[in-house]
Amino acid sequence: MRSVRDRRGALCHFSRVPQAMLAIKKLWRGQAAVTQSARRMFSGASVSGKQTDKLGPVTWSSLALAGVVGSGAVYYYQSEKDRLQTQSKSTVTSVGKPMLGGPWTLVDCDTGRAVTDASFRGKLSLLYFGFTHCPDICPNELVRIGDVLDKLEIDKGEVVPLFITVDPKRDTIAQMQAYKVDFHPEFKMLTGTREQVADIAQAYRVYFSKADENDDDDDDYLVDHSIVMYLVGPDGEFLDFFTQNTRVEDIAAKIKMYS
């Protein structure tokens, strides 16, 4: 709403500009009429020198007056334009954070029990979506998250890393438990039904799709998915995100700002 009010405020200032332009046009028309009158006067060769002396000063005075007033209007227009441009440059309009996150329910593979977004309130959470059969990208990202945790100079457990599968068909509780041993011990591995996984993926705008949609019975497949880490605050609100190209040092520094 703030950005809308700013634009309306700007429109209120700009409403003065057409008035200035109208005044300038009127002055130009008046100046043109006076100029034409002067031309007709000076073009008459039979006009006596006395008549010329009488009419000449009036004509040039009118031209001078029109020029002064016109210059003032132009100055006002230019000053108002410069002021509005300066105001526009100095005003920062916040578009807010992306609408990401929301309530969700999954299964904690450590306990086999249902957990929700509320289960991790009071701490920062770092979410990553992937699957255990991912050949290289997911393992690399999980290692990077582990490196981030090691760099953070905060109490253990203040940041909870969550690995959320996008392949619930193959990523059972047992599969996720076996996969976890290769990564940082603080990881929470979460799975769920197709519907539950789809819900949280939609909440965070995560894209995922089976690479070969025509072969549903084959368990040997890859899953295309977004490669993004999501930082969620202690109140459950989305704070920031990090891509595959974000350095570990930069991720750790940003998390420290929120801790």
Automatic annotation (TrEMBL):
UniProt keyword list: Copper, Disulfide bond, Metal-binding
GO molecular function, one term: metal ion binding
Family annotation (InterPro entries): SCO1/SenC, Thioredoxin-like_sf
GO cellular component: mitochondrion
Cysteine disulfide links: 134-138
Amino-acid positions noted as binding Cu cation in the UniProt annotation, renumbered to this chain: 134, 138, 225
Matching PANTHER family: AT19154P, ELECTRON TRANSPORT PROTIN SCO1/SENC FAMILY MEMBER
Protein name from the UniProt record: Thioredoxin domain-containing protein
Classification lineage: Eukaryota, Sar, Stramenopiles, Oomycota, Peronosporomycetes
